């Protein structure tokens, strides 16, 4: 009796997931189109609830947000591009292929993808995105798995990134003089990483999400008759052959320009400058990471792994193909952020939750309000700039935990990203799959991680 009952329950679970995948395929538009639709939603919400939603304010705020985000957008794109250059280095590629060779069943694929991508994302969100997409491709070439399921698993493992070393919110509050260090501006003190990403209430749910979702994804894999495997695009091999040496020059003679391009001297110079700066700064001020030093570190690692300047330039050129959609969406979401800030809509949302909070419940209410705001502003740094000015003063006046309140915002980023396709766009572009099928699976991750992080904020010391 147990066997048939277990099969029935397994079939019901797969049926629910299949329904979610079908639903997302039917109703979810292209992410850029979705961002335009969200702009309209925010305008309507602002007109209904925001205190300053006049037409001139909406237009001015939209314009300012659209172009005010460009500097931050470049930082985020560089994190992704430098992470891509590392993941595409020959030694890293050989490692990915070697790891993929051991995944000969869907269960082993999940057991491989989740911890590797989870660790990579914890170290750097850009690295996690790239490793997840490339590892998924390598595995799918070797074993019959549902490719959307596998890519969704890697994206789910990546979801922990805002609890890791590249967390914009945690890093900014730990960085002296950072423009987004709202804690330092209010109190004159920084919040060290030991009180945020290394605190038990953060790293315990981070590990739990990876472990629990691994088990759930293994059970969610479609039955063999419903599996849609990976199909390598026919043009892929040809395009690689054409681009194997994009800087090849006419004639067989080695030119001075070619010699300079393939010399490691340029790499050594940049490595010396970067390592020298980091060593000097950390010796004088102590070890600290912020967005710019994270970019610098990954730039240096990528240069060292690629070897020559031209090899690194080629890797970044290929990375730029995957960031094109982000270049398109960032200004639109910047406009959304501008409208929410300028009209007071974001403050209305945050204040609604803060008004009913106590010292013990404020982190949880911060988390819940962040879930809503993240769907409209899918960038942790930009999100903190909107929500932080309201939840932080509330934490100080209520004598609530400042680190817990701030990380409540970051944890909600992890959760909402499973329904907000903004960060999935580069993953599916690299993997070569439609985003709608992936988001059907990650909706399950949203529901599970929502509960795990909320319980951690509430119960874990």
From TrEMBL:
Keywords of this entry: Membrane, Transmembrane, Transmembrane helix
Domain of life: Bacteria
InterPro entries tied to this protein: SCFA_transpt_AtoE
Keyword Transmembrane included in the entry's annotation: yes
Pfam family, one: SCFA_trans
Listed transmembrane segments: 32-50, 62-87, 107-135, 197-218, 256-279, 291-312, 332-358, 364-386, 438-460
GO CC term, one of those recorded: plasma membrane
Keyword Transmembrane: yes
Cited PANTHER family: SHORT-CHAIN FATTY ACID TRANSPORTER-RELATED
Protein name (record): Short-chain fatty acid transporter
Native source organism of the sequence: Trinickia violacea
Taxonomic lineage from the root: Bacteria, Pseudomonadati, Pseudomonadota, Betaproteobacteria, Burkholderiales
């Amino acid at each position: 009796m147990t066997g048939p009952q277990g099969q029935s329950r397994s079939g019901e679970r797969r049926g629910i997931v299949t329904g979610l995948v079908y639903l997302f395929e039917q109703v979810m538009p292209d992410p850029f189109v979705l961002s335009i639709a969200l702009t309209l939603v925010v305008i309507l919400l602002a007109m209904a609830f925001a205190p300053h939603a006049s037409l001139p304010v909406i237009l001015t705020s939209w314009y300012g947000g659209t172009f005010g985000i460009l500097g931050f957008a470049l930082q985020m794109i560089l994190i992704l591009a430098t992470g891509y250059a590392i993941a595409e280095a020959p030694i890293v590629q050989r490692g990915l292929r070697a790891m993929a060779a051991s995944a000969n069943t869907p269960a082993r694929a999940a057991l491989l993808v989740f911890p590797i991508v989870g660790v990579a994302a914890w170290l750097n969100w850009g690295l996690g995105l790239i490793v997840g997409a490339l590892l998924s491709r390598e595995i799918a070439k070797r074993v019959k798995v549902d490719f959307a399921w596998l890519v969704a698993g890697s994206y789910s493992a990546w979801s922990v990134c805002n609890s890791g070393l590249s967390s914009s919110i945690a890093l900014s509050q730990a960085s002296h003089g950072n423009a987004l260090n709202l804690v330092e501006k209010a109190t004159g003190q920084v919040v060290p990483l030991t009180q945020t990403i290394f605190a038990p209430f953060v790293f315990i749910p981070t590990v739990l999400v990876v472990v629990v979702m691994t088990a759930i994804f293994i059970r969610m894999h479609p039955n063999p008759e419903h599996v849609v495997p990976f199909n390598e695009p026919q043009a892929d091999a040809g395009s690689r052959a054409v681009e194997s040496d994009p800087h090849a020059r006419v004639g067989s003679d080695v030119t001075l320009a070619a010699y300079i391009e393939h010399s490691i001297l340029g790499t050594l110079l940049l490595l010396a400058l970067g390592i020298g700066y980091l060593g000097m700064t950390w010796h004088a001020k102590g070890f600290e990471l912020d967005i710019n030093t994270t970019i610098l570190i990954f730039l240096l690692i990528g240069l060292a792994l690629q070897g020559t300047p031209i090899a690194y330039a080629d890797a970044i050129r290929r990375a730029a193909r995957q960031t094109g959609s982000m270049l398109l969406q960032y200004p639109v979401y910047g406009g959304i952020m501008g409208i929410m800030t300028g009209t007071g809509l974001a403050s209305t949302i945050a204040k609604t939750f803060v008004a009913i909070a106590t010292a013990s419940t404020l982190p949880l209410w911060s988390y819940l309000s962040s879930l809503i705001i993240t769907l409209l502003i899918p960038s942790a740094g930009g999100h903190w700039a909107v929500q932080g000015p309201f939840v932080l003063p509330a934490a100080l006046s209520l004598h609530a935990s400042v680190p817990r309140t701030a990380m409540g915002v970051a944890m909600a980023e992890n959760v909402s990203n499973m329904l907000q396709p903004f960060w999935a766009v580069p993953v599916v572009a690299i993997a070569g799959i439609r985003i709608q099928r992936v988001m059907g699976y990650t909706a399950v991750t949203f529901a599970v991680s929502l509960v795990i992080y909320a319980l951690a904020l509430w119960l874990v010391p």
